[in-house]
Amino acid sequence: MALRAAVxxxxxxxxxxxxxxxxxxxxxxxxxxEPGLGGLATTFPWRDTHLERFxxxxxxxxxxxxxxIHELGLSADLLWRPTGMGFMHxxxxxxxxxxxxxxxxxxxxITDRLRLGLLGLRARAECADPRLDDVAIEDxxxxxxxxxxxxxxxxxxLVAKLGERYRGVxxxxxxxxxxxxxxxxxxxxxxxxxxxxxxxxxxxxxxxRRGVTLRLGARVEAIAxxxxxxxxxxxxxxxxxxxxxxxxxxxxxxxxxxRGLDLDARWSGLALDYQGVVCGVFVLERPLSPWYWMxxxxxxATCQGVVEMSNLTPPERTHGMHVAYLVNxxxxxxxxxxxxxxxLLARYRADLERLFPEAARTIVEARAFKAPFVExxxxxxxxxxxPPASVIxxxxxxxxxxxxxxxxxxxxxxxxxxxxxMPRLLAEAxxxxxxxxxxxxxx
Length: 443
Ligand SMILES: Cc1cc2nc3c(=O)[nH]c(=O)nc-3n(C[C@H](O)[C@H](O)[C@H](O)COP(=O)(O)OP(=O)(O)OC[C@H]3O[C@@H](n4cnc5c(N)ncnc54)[C@H](O)[C@@H]3O)c2cc1C
Description:
Layout: E1 4-8, H1 12-23, E2 27-32, E3 43-46, E4 49-52, H2 63-71, E5 78-82, E6 86-89, E7 92-95, H3 99-103, H4 110-126, H5 137-145, H6 147-162, H7 171-181, E8 188-192, H8 197-209, E9 213-216, E10 220-226, E11 229-234, E12 239-242, E13 244-247, H9 251-257, H10 265-268, E14 274-284, E15 293-295, E16 305-308, E17 322-330, H11 335-338, H12 341-355, H13 357-360, E18 363-376, H14 382-385, E19 390-392, E20 396-398, H15 411-433
Parallel strand pairs: 1-2, 1-13, 2-9, 13-20
Antiparallel strand pairs: 3-4, 5-8, 6-7, 10-11, 11-12, 14-17, 14-18, 15-16, 16-17, 19-20
Helix pairs in contact: 1-8, 1-15, 2-15, 4-7, 5-6, 5-7
């Protein structure tokens, strides 16, 4: 029997959940608080196209995501390109892409460089070791590469990715991240030829074709039980009933929505904070560097990293212009987060003028964006407290970034969380209604 299912959230987790639920034959309604779909994948209009608010790349190991891209008919648009990383140290950019680059990394003595070179192999060997869940990242790295290499290279890399709050994060997260990123001989990243707007648009039309009702600008304020059904209270006061609900918002929003449900401590008591992102997007006539990713933590700039998306995406997408993101991973309580768009852009423009003066003279467009809930700040032992997907069996499920650990927070990991949840959801919902919904019904 087809159930009436609600999905809360129209980011990748919500879109993938709605896609799978509708594929299994259910009547799905998706609620998204914002006026458009996409969550962190949303874009802004620029000339005759759309640019991403936040940079994204796809990796060859992102199999769950690539499968959905294929199902949405976008395989021909998936491009793979060699990309690289430059590391800015005391004003000089050091390429760090090959074993030879690492061996030639002059700021460190050769013994440290050799230890750094071995780290990738050790991460791959240790990424499945559950004991790393209880080891702080700094302790794990220092034991393997030494304190000097940690301070010179690894700490800036971690700050560029997580901000100062990297300190409490378990080593398991880093080992898993390194194993994900370095699984090919040469660093290759993927993107969609027409940009990620095409992914969201393809999701939207495919969902509509599968009969999904999309409710945009519809914020869910509370989830309650109503006999056998689940009731959603929307901003504005209306209430709607469903047989089952999948929530995909960040954990804090889920905890707020379910306050009246008296859930046990695995969901209601979990204290998981999130790191936010503040980001300046610049369209320029000249490139900054040949690199996709460049941490600049030690440069004295406001930003901690620079991502040059146009070193991955085809030039025709942006009329031959170059697109660079200046980024800070910052908490929503930080001073940087409080700055308005003009002030943020003034800071980031000053960074560009200092670090890349020639390119800075060719800026044709500048925008700034903030997202308060991006990177879950994993705590030691998180594997033991990660919230299960089945909250009220057959009725309420959670598929969110709070569950991607120890995988990195990515579109692919979100899709994997959904794939992990679906067999259980279908079995429990089927058992509840005696409907015998087939386990393999997800398509
Ligand atoms: C700067 C940056 C760089 C990144 N780089 C990469 C990358 O290179 N590769 C990669 O794969 N990933 C990358 N990511 C991570 C990726 O964006 C996330 O993993 C993914 O988008 C999370 O999707 P989500 O659907 O779980 O959450 P979100 O995208 O946050 O979506 C949640 C949605 O739920 C909605 N919502 C919340 N509460 C409610 C409510 N009460 N009612 C209705 N709707 C609600 C929100 O409005 C939002 O649209 C990056 C992220 C950032 C910010």
